[in-house]
Amino acid sequence: MTLDKLLEIVEDYNPEEIENVTKAYKFAEAMHEGQYRQSGEPYIIHPLNVAYILAEMHADGSTLCAGLLHDVLEDCDCTKEEIAKEFNPEVANLVDGVTKLSKLNFSSKSDQNLANTRKIIIGITSDVRIIIVKLADRLHNMRTLQYKTEFKQKENAMETMDIFVPLAYYIGAYRVKSELEDLSLQYLYPDKYKRIEDIKYKLEVDNKEILQEMLYTINKILNDRNIPNEIKVRTKNIYGIYKRLNEGNKLYEIHDLLALKIMVDDIANCYQTLGLVHSKYHPINDKFKDYICNPKTNMYRSLHTTVFGPENRLVQTQIRTFDMDNVASFGLTAYWDIEKGNARNVMQEDLKSKYQFFDSLIEINQVFADNQEFVWQVKSELFADKIYVYTTKGDIIELPKGATAIDFAYKIHSDVGNTMVGAIVNDKQVKPDYILHNKERVRIITDIMSYGPREEWLDKVQTTKAKRKIKDFINNKEG
Ligand code: MN
């Protein structure tokens, strides 16, 4: 990796930033002078690679500079003010945010650490690009983990799974998330990793012809109708396969191991393509998902349908527009391409209005004055396992694992929670404290004459919003 290689890619999509990026490189190089990585290379190689990862996402100028400068506050004799003066306050803020995020640690117990942890978590909501730079930093560190001791490797891999994989998921950066997961698994369970890698390779070889045949056939059908398209074969990542096997699935039960990804120019053509695919390959009825009308909670959008391909092999087909595919691979970072100059504002706005994790984070911050409780709640509500359930309209709702129908009701609206008397889950009536599972369809039964939430519900809910609303209701009733 060299500066020229970085500049070449920047020149391609954002030539007016060449000067700034060069300046940031020179500045960082001087700062890290005499420092070396464990691999023996000069330290500057690391920030350079981080900036390159960001340039591949077509990051804006400030983000690129922050990528190059991200370690100077921590490792060198340099202050935030100096960066602000030398570059601008925006770059200084990003570098400062990344430096702090590096210290995020959920297990620290001292009061000061807890207060710090809270500041870091709230800090990332001020500018989502802090998360993006940090993810690029972690990605390069994970890619070069072979130079660390075995203890450090495992420790970093665990931290990556606990903190950075969820963050990548929340902003929809699937490509980064998949790579981080695979790298972590490789260091945590090398044997299992190797075994699944072999399985994956064999699957790809065995199915190559079938997928190529399908790809060719669909491409021809679409070309005949003048629908602009691009089709790719996609295999689930190694960690994805590991997780499904670990959940007790047999290999043949995992229907989306191999998928065909079909990208077309607009939404109308997505649905037309769906019809064309179904008329050629017979679909399985209950394996169809419309994430275009009902995006996932991290704004992933696509049509999914599993069909009988050649030789009656099941193949998942994903149909989406080119822009949706960009968002599917890079999440919020895709806006750098889609929105150009206005990307930063659109990212921040979208994060607030569309990404459910952001809302939960703000809510937790408002409710918990105590730092220890705040940190514990963020950890258990946002950085633990989650479930996804459907409303009757088909909207997807994200909840922590163990959440009940009461949590669901309050997530919809506090009035729904306050008048809830029961729920219907997949056509079966259940009590309010029923624990929800992935993919269940939930309808809340309300009655305006209901008694209202009971005090014992407080023990049955997982989410901060439900807890707060129940307490509010009880306090108002007494007062
Ligand atoms: Mn770094």
Characterise the protein shown here.
The protein contains 22 helices and ten strands. The protein has helices at 3-13, 18-31, 45-56, 61-69, 72-75, 80-86, 89-101, 111-123, 129-143, 150-170, 174-188, 190-224, 238-246, 267-280, 322-330, 335-338, 343-354, 356-367, 371-382, 405-412, 414-418, 464-478, and strands at residues 229-235, 258-264, 289-290, 303-308, 314-321, 386-390, 396-400, 420-425, 428-430, 442-446. The chain is α+β, with helices and mostly antiparallel strands. The strands form three sheets. Strands 1-2-5-4-3 form a five-stranded mixed sheet. Strands 9-8-10 form a three-stranded antiparallel sheet. Strands 6-7 form a two-stranded antiparallel ribbon. The radius of gyration is 24 Å and the shape is globular. Helix 1 (3-13) runs parallel beside helix 3 (45-56) and helix 4 crosses helix 9. The chain folds into three domains: 3-188, Orthogonal Bundle (Hypothetical protein af1432); 191-332, Beta Polymerase, domain 2, CATH 3.30.460; 385-478, Beta-grasp domain (Ubiquitin-like (UB roll)), CATH 3.10.20.30. The mean pLDDT is 91. The structure holds manganese (II) ion.
